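Researcher: Sequence recovery benchmark, item below. Answer with residues only.
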């Protein structure tokens, strides 16, 4: 475990808490954090209402990049993001995360990859209303087995990073939308994920707060090398992206 040079935040805080490492395949190619390989998704397979939502999607997500995924409503963006984030399994194909073929993992192992390597930020923030900002950020670390004092210390560092050190004890209802989303971003960073996934993360924000959140993500990306994949309808987000992927009818176009 080592500390990075920014804010003393430990880059790999969960190593000690881990009881058993997720099985890691031998790996020759370190260029990609995440590879989506020939992924298809069929909802309600074999039923009258069967729906082919993703069709043989192949995609590499490069470390340290901000990628935006755009496309019409219903084109499969959220489905793809949920599969990348191990919230859902594809019908066929696989996602390789950090050299691990997730198709081969048990449900428990998959949940563990999700917990340790993926951070999520949602449109409606999804903060726990009864917890304060620092408690919300500490929660994923506590779930992953970190001690209370250490989790709180890191939560405070992360809230400093998103410029909210003066709102530590505020509950979500006592924060603006933009502030809530910044708490959610701090929470997504809690377990030092490989990649942070956002589904319409600026969708509930006005243009000023949207820009502030995106400038924060860009700064985190530039100074700390975080990798982001952002599904969005907002063409302005393209300005912050290294790469934009367009989807239509379940395919990358
Ligand atoms: N659990 C499900 N069961 C059946 N069909 C689903 C399910 N989830 C999504 N769908 C359908 O799959 C298609 C793709 O949905 P998805 O949510 O991935 O689209 P999207 O590109 O994110 O759209 P939006 O921009 O509106 O959020 C849609 O037609 C939707 O109705
Ligand atoms: Mg969607």
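Model:
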């Amino acid at each position: 475990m080592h500390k990075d040079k920014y804010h003393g935040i430990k880059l790999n805080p969960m190593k000690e808490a881990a009881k058993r490492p997720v099985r890691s395949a031998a790996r020759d190619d370190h260029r990609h954090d995440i590879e989506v390989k020939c992924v298809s998704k069929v909802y309600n397979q074999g039923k009258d209402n069967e729906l082919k939502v993703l069709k043989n999607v192949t995609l590499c997500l490069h470390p340290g990049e901000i990628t935006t995924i755009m496309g019409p409503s219903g084109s499969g963006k959220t489905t793809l993001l949920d599969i990348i984030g191990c919230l859902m399994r594809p019908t066929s194909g696989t996602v390789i995360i950090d050299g691990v073929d997730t198709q081969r993992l048990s449900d428990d192992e998959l949940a563990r990859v999700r917990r340790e390597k993926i951070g999520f930020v949602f449109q409606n923030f999804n903060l726990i209303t009864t917890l304060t900002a620092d408690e919300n950020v500490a929660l994923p670390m506590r779930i992953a087995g970190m001690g209370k004092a250490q989790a709180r210390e890191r939560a405070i560092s992360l809230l400093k990073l998103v410029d909210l050190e003066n709102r530590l004890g505020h509950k979500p209802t006592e924060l603006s939308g933009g502030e809530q989303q910044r708490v959610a971003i701090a929470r997504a960073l809690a377990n030092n994920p490989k990649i942070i996934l956002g589904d319409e993360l600026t969708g509930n924000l006005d243009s000023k707060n949207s820009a502030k959140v995106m400038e924060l993500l860009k700064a985190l990306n530039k100074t700390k090398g975080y990798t982001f994949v952002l599904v969005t309808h907002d063409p302005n987000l393209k300005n912050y992206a290294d790469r934009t992927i367009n989807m239509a009818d379940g395919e990358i176009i």
